[in-house]
Amino acid sequence: xxxxPYEVRTLIQKARxxxxxxxxxxxxxxxxFRSGAYIVLMTIxxxxxxxxxxxxxxxxxxHRNPNSRRYVKLEGEPKRWELKECLQQFLHISRGA
Length: 97
What we know:
Blueprint lengths: L5 H22 L6 H23 L16 E2 L2 E2 L4 H12 L3
Antiparallel strand pairs: 1-2
Helix pairs in contact: 1-2, 2-3
């Protein structure tokens, strides 16, 4: 991962760790809420991977205020796209629209 911006590397590492944790949690025989935990952890992994892709493409995955160039903020930080928005934006960009 040399040569990648710090934020991209961090997000890829986060995605990998959450994906591995999801599989580990699902395969743990003593866990009682395996399916739910797997879904939550894998969603975080995919979301982090999409954010890394967008940052690598120099697209900021943040919600904007309507009719403004400013970002919506939560606790002082820009609100990042959720998985659904990431998928829509990725498909939109991939189709060349």
